[in-house]
Amino acid sequence: TLGLPSIWRAKVERTFIAIKPDGVQRGLSGEILQRFERRGFKLVGLKLIKVSEELAEKHYAEHRERPFFKGLVEFITSSPVVAAVIEGKGVVATARAMIGPTNPLNAPLGTIRGDYGIDIGRNIIHGSDSPESAEREIALWFTPEELLDWQATIAGWIYE
Ligand code: IDP
């Protein structure tokens, strides 16, 4: 295994991200995916989908009782979403940090929400908030066949 970065052998972390209808409509999909790629994270799943009401309600199940739930489901099902799974060391927490706080007005410049958003109901992107959420959301949005196990040949220039 000489020369093989350990990340090729280690079990690495995955997280789920979704560029919401506002991000896709505003033409930010490529730019947002590029931020994760440039950081060194690897795409292992990617698709453009029209979210069903059933998927939206399952995805946001923890918010079922909140006053904004109905509007949130209407919004997320209103127009295509880019769903992605990205992989890499520490990706769950790092993707959240790159995305920024829920309310874009409180999000620092340099975060996705801080650079592109204003209103909380138009905050451009979703990212799993814990490894447990990531596992649940990946299984909800992707079939196993849609997730590719592949080795990025640049891994040795990202991981020591
Ligand atoms: P997160 O997306 O930063 O993890 P959560 O608290 O899990 O934030 O909320 C999920 C989503 O619900 C938010 O991204 C946002 O789109 C929406 N949301 C949360 N709070 C409000 C609100 O007070 N008004 C409208 N939409 C909200």
Automatic annotation (TrEMBL):
Pfam families: NDK
EC number: 2.7.4.6
Primary location class: cytoplasm
Cofactor: Mg(2+)
Residues annotated as the enzyme's active site: H126
Subcellular location: Cytoplasm
PROSITE patterns: NDPK, NDPK_LIKE
UniProt entry tagged with the keyword DNA-binding: no
Catalyses which reaction(s): dZDP + ATP = dZTP + ADP; a 2'-deoxyribonucleoside 5'-diphosphate + ATP = a 2'-deoxyribonucleoside 5'-triphosphate + ADP; a ribonucleoside 5'-diphosphate + ATP = a ribonucleoside 5'-triphosphate + ADP
A biological-process GO annotation: UTP biosynthetic process
Domain (Nucleoside diphosphate kinase-like) ranges: 12-149
Catalytic class of the enzyme: transferase
Biological function: (Microbial infection) Catalyzes the phosphorylation of dZDP to dZTP, when the bacterium is infected by a phage that produces the substrate for the synthesis of dZTP (2- amino-2'-deoxyadenosine 5'-triphosphate), which is then used by the phage as a DNA polymerase substrate.
PANTHER family assigned to the protein according to its UniProt record, in alphabetical order: NUCLEOSIDE DIPHOSPHATE KINASE (PTHR11349)
Protein family per UniProt: Belongs to the NDK family.
Assembly with partners or alone: Homotetramer.
Protein name, as recorded: Nucleoside diphosphate kinase
Gene from which the chain derives: ndk
